[in-house]
Amino acid sequence: MNCLSADETVTLSAVLERLSPHLAQIKVLHKVFCTGVAEVPPATPNVVRASHLLNTLYKAIIDYDSVGHASEQAVALLFSLWTETVRPYLEIVDEWIVHGHLFDPAKEFIIQRNKDVPVNHRDFWYATYTLYSVSEMVDNEEKLNDAASGSSGGDQGSSNRQLTMVSFLKPVLKQIIMAGKSMQLLKNLHCKEAEDSERSSRDAERKSLYTLFLESVQSRLSSPEESPTDKVTERQATTRSLIKMQSIMAQHLETNDVHDPLLAINFA
């Protein structure tokens, strides 16, 4: 919004006029804020807050996208907001599957480390990590230990309870658990000094999981960029091809003594 001069009179109608192009987006943001943040009870654990907010944004993107061209700006706004909101989640996953360290001081990640079980304990594989899932129909929190297979645990509840979980992460949750636990075991076999000295150099060379995620999303959503000249050239080539095909088919019909005006019109 442009800055107002000191001698300019500010009225509600002037403010409304300046905000009118953005009112639709503000309404979308307000709706998402109310559902994903404001309406969540104060005593709700952080892990549930984070999952609920990410699910709210993700569902809103899908809902508005289904409307079509009319909600294109709303989808773009929500998608940019979702990619930024999901960053801490992916950074936690990155640290765990690359370095074997589940770092989540705010306890927002759906998987938590049981510090009572050290890495060299015989029950490490079965009892080290806990998957938090909370039923929206039940007030109390449920902790489901992930089994040796690294299953998400969310499907083990009764069918009439909807578990709060980051929906987009659920299909790969088993692989994340397996990779994180395996990497921690592998890291425990190496010398601590060598690991610390090599870690910074490796991190400088590789792309973060969040960066790879953004690149993957961009490549899936955007088509290859074409210059206007390339588009015109391709259109001309297609037109020439169609004209040539029409000529060949006309000759073919004449050779076979087929005189069907409707067929000729369709080919044309």
UniProtKB/TrEMBL annotation:
Residues 7-208 form the Gamma tubulin complex component protein N-terminal domain. It comes from Ilyodon furcidens (goldbreast splitfin). Keywords: Cytoplasm, Cytoskeleton, Microtubule. It comes from the Eukaryota. PANTHER family: GAMMA TUBULIN COMPLEX PROTEIN, GAMMA-TUBULIN COMPLEX COMPONENT 5. Its main location: cytoplasm. Pfam families: GCP_N_terminal. This is Gamma-tubulin complex component. Belongs to the TUBGCP family. Component of the gamma-tubulin ring complex (gTuRC) which mediates microtubule nucleation. It is found in: Cytoplasm, Cytoskeleton, Microtubule organizing center. InterPro entries: GCP (IPR007259), GCP_N (IPR041470).
